[in-house]
Amino acid sequence: MRILLVEDDAQVSTVLASTLINQSHVVDIAIDGQQGWELLQVCPYDLVLLDVMLPKLDGISFCRKVRAYKQDILIMLLTARTDQADRVLGLDAGADDYMVKPFDPEELIARVRALQRRGSSSSPIVTWGKLRLEPDRRRVTYANQDLTLRPKEYTMLELFLRNPQRIFSRREILDRLWSLEDDPPDESTIKAHVKGIRRALRTVGAEQMIQTLYGQGYGLSPHVEELPTKGERTQAIVAEIWQQVKGLSFDRLSVLQAAVNVLKRGEFSEELRSDAAQNSHRLAGALGMFGFSEGSQVALQLEQLFESGDLTNVQEIERTDELIQYLQHYLTLQDQAKTAEPKFQAPNVSDTPTEARVLAIDDDETLITLLQEVLRPFGVEVIPLDSPANLWQVLDEIQPDLVLLDVQMPEINGIDLCKAIRASEQWRWLPIIFLTVCQDFQTQSQVFEIGADDYLMKPVVPSVLATRIFNRISRLQVIQQSAIAASHQDAVLPSL
């Protein structure tokens, strides 16, 4: 709420204002009745906290004047007078509540919440679809998932929730959420706060709840009950991509079966071993991302057999064949189950603004396609690079915010690529995240030693990957801003 505090005692007003601001209220202070009356006519206040003994215009007269001017505003009188006659006089003058000094700040906050409920004729908890705001706990959830918001983002979302049918212009948002003592923000600041709310909602797949009407302002989107949950949205995207690319996974299984058939005939070559291991590696990564965790583990076992097993040993060949047959059966059953699942409408994310450009270096086109689709709703654009030979040219062309690498790739492995980027004068600052099926501690230690910023094992939850991406980019921005500030400070220091 935007609150007008009319109090001539500076010490009292400072404590009260601080208490209210800590509860995400916007507070303006007037030191006498006349100044308070003038502010009331130019700012849209929800509540007036009013001392009775005021210079220029006393609280009782102020209260009567307000009621003659504006009936819907809430008024609470604050005074050191304890006589019942004084309380009756204040309430008859139009006050909604009356507190006697000194009082407990917690009681004041509770009474403000009670007045807020009375003013809105509703519960203190406000909801819009699956979105829920609990003012007493300063908690915001969507489908029982907690959202993390900055203080001004919280107050802006509360403003939207308490006025769900309204669209607020920038001017109206300023009037409601910024006190007169604050420097008024420009339009980009308002946009940044709306963007922050959307980013928080995006972690639960609900960024569409905030709408922008160009030339008018911001507010809640209608038809919120029709919005799918995050799980449904991700499920729809993954199911759609699986139908598009599942043939490639079955083709890779066929390659593995053909390799075993060759081994059974007593034929063997390093080229066959390498090709089979690479297809097993790609299967492990892709199946994990599609939610087929058991199939991913079997593919990892096959990769290890083709990489380091004795492929001239009959028992090893038979074991490899059994694993391939099992994976074929498992994948067929999973595909049938996917086909039989209830279908959800895949979300239209064409209007989702791009907030991060990520270069993904991987030769697995299935995985790249999946990453592009599941990260797009979070504002992440994934740009694929299947040939590391073009790395420097692509970096210059697209200027990415971050690079995603796999450890194992056919032409050059991710570790060598990471070393090359860190050795580049132009690109050594670029954040690098490894996304791989490699689970051994030695590999993880090695990638951090050569300069990787993060290490995630497939499969990974899309929202977690998006959060890691934005965290790394944000950390880099903080470092860069600190370096710029330090250089400016050095430039203005007088020479000794």
Can you walk me through this structure?
The chain folds into 4 domains: 2-120, Rossmann fold, CATH 3.40.50; 126-223, Arc Repressor Mutant, subunit A (Orthogonal Bundle); 231-340, Four Helix Bundle (Hemerythrin (Met), subunit A); 356-483, Response regulator (Rossmann fold, 3-Layer(aba) Sandwich). The protein is 52% helix and 14% strand. α15 links the parallel β14 (402-405) and β15 (432-436). It has helices at residues 10-21, 33-40, 59-69, 84-92, 105-120, 151-162, 170-177, 187-202, 230-264, 270-289, 293-308, 314-340, 365-375, 391-398, 414-423, 441-449, 462-492; strands at 2-6, 26-30, 47-51, 74-79, 97-100, 126-128, 131-134, 139-142, 145-146, 210-213, 217-220, 356-361, 380-385, 402-405, 432-436, 454-457. The longest helix has 35 residues, at 230-264. It has 496 residues and is an alpha/beta fold. The strands form 4 sheets. A 5-stranded parallel sheet has the order 2-1-3-4-5, with helices on both faces. The chain has a 5-stranded parallel sheet with strand order 13-12-14-15-16, with helices on both faces. It has a 4-stranded antiparallel sheet with strand order 6-7-8-9, with helices on one face.
